[in-house]
Amino acid sequence: MSQLRSAILLLVFFFLAWGNPSLADDALPPIDAHRFELKPVQKSTSGKIYLFESNQVIPKTGNLILVYENEKPAMAFRVLKNDLSKKQFVGKRVRRYDQINELKMNQEYMSLEKIADIILPPPAEVAPEPSSTEPTTTTTGQPTTEATPTDTPNNIDPPPANDSTLDSSSTEALDQIDESLDEEGEEEDEALEVEESFKIEPWNNILSVTAGYFGNSSNFSGSPILNNGFSFSYAHAFAHDIFFSKKSLQDSLAVEFGGIYYRIINRDAKNDLYSLLPFYGDLFYQLHFSTSFTLTAYAGLQYNYMTSASNPGKSLKLLQGLQPNFGLGAFYAIGPQWFLRADLGWDRITGGLSIKW
Q: Of the candidates 343, 330, 222, 338, which has an alpha carbon nearest to the alpha carbon of residue 280?
């Protein structure tokens, strides 16, 4: 009964917290920001300086803007210059997210401009004060009236004037801005750019379906028997950047488990039929050259399990048992998270389709 009561209290707390966003929002500092659409029209050779156009909002110089792609953060920029008459502004990239290398020219993006942090005033202390019309007595015994000073609003700085004319109609002009920032010694914070956190392949899981020729070398036979069949497999990456961690070359190590089905017909020339369901476990090494292409190598063990045999002969015992697996392979992207897969090894010559997540 006490366990049921505890469970009910836990559910009540969950729904209260879920239904009251202030429980989570209080931990985050409030900011003043607004959304607007922009369009990159040019960029510098280095890809760090972009020229944007916007028919909605031209952000203020020095402000940060966050550009979204498919409702996910893509890049963050600091505004360097703007021109209200041309509805253009120049931004310096300060951060990249996920796999976004560059923004597409003349494509509309949703963005968010941070205007300022909202600083909440400390709670005022309420103290009793004499009324402005309440008479008080002085040392001379004569009544007098104390006036309460009125609060005056804080002075608000007027908005800054428009920046100097923005002359960025060519890539050369953006390159000059990029070079001038380097000459001035502006800090290039690599941590903000998160170059080292860029992952060619951010997914850890692979589900594959393949078909082709599968070799049977049970009991470590030196001459594998190739048979037509198909397989299902699942791989999970547990280590990244083992030997390579560059932007253009990274690697990972995974374990892969799978099952195969094939049949062997007339192996002993006596109308014999063997149905096998091998299953295996491999270490799976991946070398990522880009988001589209990956080379692989694998090695492991496979157990060839025979599900049925018709008119069996001497091959009945020879086709069952452990065998080694090793070989090479490749992945090639054909769509978001969808890949063509090929394997060439001692135990298989196959091709198929994989999905990664």
A: 343
Is a pLDDT exceeding 90 seen at residue 142? no
CA distance 316 to 216: 13
Q: Which two tokens stand for residue 270?
A: 């006596």
| Percent of the chain with pLDDT strictly greater than 90 | 50
| Token pair recorded at residue 261 | 């089905």
* Distant-in-sequence, close-in-space partners of 88: CB < 8 Å, separation ≥ 6: 41, 51, 52, 53, 54, 58, 82, 166, 168
- Cite the beta strand spans of the chain per DSSP E: 31-43, 49-53, 64-69, 72-83, 88-96, 109-117, 135-137, 143-145, 205-216, 225-245, 250-265, 273-276, 279-288, 293-304, 306-310, 321-335, 338-345, 348-356
Handedness of CA 21, 27, 32, 37 (dihedral sign): negative
How much is the pTM?
A: 0.50
**∠ at Cα 195 (294, 47), nearest 5°?**
95
Mean of the per-residue pLDDT values of the chain: 80
- Domains by residue range for the chain, with CATH: 28-118+160-181 (2.40.10.170), 205-356 (2.40.160.20)
Q: Name, in order, each residue with C-beta under 8 angstroms of 8's C-beta and a sequence gap of 6 or more.
A: none
The alpha carbon torsion through 190, 194, 197, 198 (nearest 10 deg) reads -110
Read off the pLDDT of each residue in 167-191 and give the average, rounded to a whole number.
62
pLDDT, mean of residues 29-36 = 72
257 strand-pairing partners: 234, 281
Q: Are strands 72-83 and 88-96 parallel, antiparallel or unpaired?
A: antiparallel
Q: What's the average model confidence in pLDDT over 90-108?
A: 87
How confident is residue 29, by pLDDT bands cut at 50, 70 and 90? low
Produce one character per residue of 116-142: b if its CB has 16 or more CB atoms within 10 Å, e if not.
Answer: eeeeeeeeeeeeeeeeeeeeeeeeeee
Cα-to-chain-centroid distance, residue 117: 27
pLDDT at 50 over 60: yes
The one-character DSSP state at 2 is H
> DSSP labels for 30-48?
-EEEEEEEEEEEEE-TTS-
